[in-house]
Write a structure and sequence with these properties.
This protein is about 60% helix and about 0% strand. The protein has about 550 residues and is mainly alpha-helical. The C terminus is likely disordered. It comes from Malus domestica.
């Protein structure tokens, strides 16, 4: 204060004495650096014993007191510590950091986790998303966070002490999850203990009244929880929904780590271990959903957080690539340039998706993923276009979309052959199922009765003409048998037989020709003309046949 009082009373501009005054104030710090001694021990008197302080810690204590009482700006102590570390060696920085840790209760402003979160969110705005300074790349666990509990049962305990020991022994695995994959013995011990805990939770469910009476969600936002491990509190803690949720969420985090990718082959769980993890995970989620209050909502939030954590793990496994993507520049490919790397599935994203299939084998077989729509569902957009009330302009109709029409024809060919047959006559709109159309539109595409009768008569006439042609080409077996046995035959029969012997056809009489004309019509006209020619040839052949059979001639 005397130095500053002298500086204030000096006349003239501040440029003459400001720097000198500051250097005189921080002289202990500068002298400690120049002397080569340890900064935190500089100026320490050996006569005072262990309670003696050096000049630097004494100076920091004074500034910290002034900041705490708000006599000076609160950030001055941090500015002083920053200057001190910048001008110190690595060994001296360790001593400075030891001083900071000894004053963390004052510097840390208590354990207000909400306020700490606000500070972290504020700092996040000044660092890029891909900043790796706070990322645990190797995934190292803090195994020094040991949970101590009673090993021997105290006198007068009212709970099962074996359950107490089993319950708190799970924290050893929660603290160091990689230890479970080192051997089957530790995993069996963990699962057996976990089954005991889960069975106890299921046998003693909490009611809604207990959940509301012991809900600590609002208070828990103001401090970080470190539960007491006294055996006398075990009964009360089991009735606390927050305590149960704490343990169950630890189980989900552990299971998520064991299933996470990026481990070596020896660290991956076995097939039997995967089945046990899946079974235990389902039981834990069911218990979380049953724990009041709002168990289902709480479970949904936890699953969402764990899903984001899995994405974070994938990002670390990929080497923490930056999230920001620069705009692509058009580059001219020069001859002899290096080719792009070849991926197993064509590109990096598909290759990554192929790896994920190992973790989720049902992803590609889910029936909801890809399904063939029904005919009525597929043609509904076209039906809406056909409605005049919709007022859709023709150029925007689905019938002008070639891909849409092509897919629809494929679906109709598989599921609706009747509708598919109307495509030739009515186009793509005729393929639409009739039940989707209005009565007026339906009448356009339904087959009329007259059309059906004409089509049937046409098919019948074709059948009759085909039958007549078969009769003309056939050889009657009875006629051949009669000739061989010497049975008398009339002239027409002889003529027909003679014609057949020459490769001709039977001679139809006048009545047959008239009926044929009536049935066959225009399509049988050509057949009638051919039959008349064959009659003349048959008559000539018949006369020759009579001459051969007449003994007198």
């Amino acid at each position: 204060m005397e130095v500053f009082r002298t500086a204030i009373l000096q006349p003239g501009p501040p440029e003459r004495f400001a720097l000198q005054t500051v250097q005189q104030v921080i002289q202990p710090q500068s002298s400690a650096v120049q002397s080569g001694e340890q900064i935190m021990q500089y100026g320490q008197s050996t006569d005072a014993g262990e309670t003696a302080q050096g000049h630097i810690p004494r100076l920091l204590d004074v500034v910290l007191y002034l900041c705490e009482k708000e006599h000076v700006e609160g950030g001055m102590i941090f500015q002083l510590l920053e200057d001190l570390t910048e001008m110190s060696t690595m060994r001296n920085c360790k001593d400075v950091f030891g001083y900071i840790e000894s004053k963390q209760d004052i510097l840390g402003k208590a354990n207000d986790v909400v306020f700490c979160g606000r500070i972290l969110m504020f700092l996040a705005h000044f660092f890029p998303l891909s900043e790796r300074s706070a990322v645990n790349i190797k995934g190292v666990f803090n195994t020094s966070n040991e949970t101590k509990y009673e090993k021997d049962p105290p006198d007068g305990i009212s709970i099962d002490f074996n359950f107490y020991k089993t319950f708190w022994s799970l924290q050893e695995s929660f603290c160091n999850p990689p230890s479970l994959t080192l051997g089957p013995t530790k995993w069996k011990k963990f699962t057996s203990g976990l089954m005991v805990v889960l069975n106890t939770f299921e046998a003693q469910p909490l009611s809604d009244e207990e959940g509301d009476a012991n809900n600590l969600e609002e208070e828990a936002t103001n401090f970080s929880i470190k539960y007491l491990t006294s055996s006398k509190l075990m009964g009360l803690e089991l009735k606390d929904p927050s305590f149960r949720r704490h343990i169950l969420v630890q189980c989900l985090i552990l299971f998520d780590y064991l299933k996470a990718p990026g481990k070596s082959e020896k660290d991956l769980p076995s097939e039997s271990m995967k089945e046990e993890i899946k079974s235990c995970e389902e039981r834990v989620k069911k218990l979380l959903e049953m724990t009041p209050p709002k168990g289902k909502e709480f479970l949904n939030k936890i699953e969402h957080i764990l899903e984001r954590e899995r994405n974070w793990v994938w990002w670390k496994c990929d080497g923490c690539p930056p999230f920001e993507k620069q705009p692509m520049e058009k580059k001219v490919i020069q001859e002899g340039a290096k080719k792009r790397p070849r991926w197993r599935m064509g590109n990096k994203e598909l290759s990554q998706l192929w790896k994920w299939a190992d973790q989720n084998p049902n992803a590609l077989t889910d029936p909801q993923r890809v399904r063939t729509p029904s005919i009525t569902e597929y043609w509904k957009p076209l039906v809406e276009d056909m409605d005049p009330a919709a007022g859709i302009e023709p150029e925007y109709h689905h019938k002008n979309n070639r891909v849409y029409c092509w897919k629809g024809l494929r679906f109709s060919a598989r599921q609706d052959l009747e509708g598919f047959s109307r495509f030739t006559e009515h186009g793509i709109e005729g393929v639409v199922p009739l039940e989707l159309l209005s009565p007026e539109e339906r009448s356009k595409y339904q087959a009329k009765p007259n059309d059906r009768s004409k089509r049937a008569k046409k098919e019948e006439s074709k059948g009759a003409a085909h039958q007549l042609e078969e009769n003309q080409n056939a050889t009657p077996a009875s006629e051949l048998d009669g000739e061989a046995s010497g049975t008398p035959m009339d002239t027409d029969t002889i003529a027909a037989a003679g014609n057949m012997s020459q490769g001709g056809s039977p001679i139809p009489d006048e009545h047959q020709k008239q009926s044929s004309d009536a049935d066959v019509g225009q399509e049988g006209g050509q057949l009638e003309a051919d039959a008349e020619v064959e009659v003349e040839a048959g008559m000539l052949d018949g006369e020759d046949a009579e001459a051969d059979l007449d003994p007198v001639g």
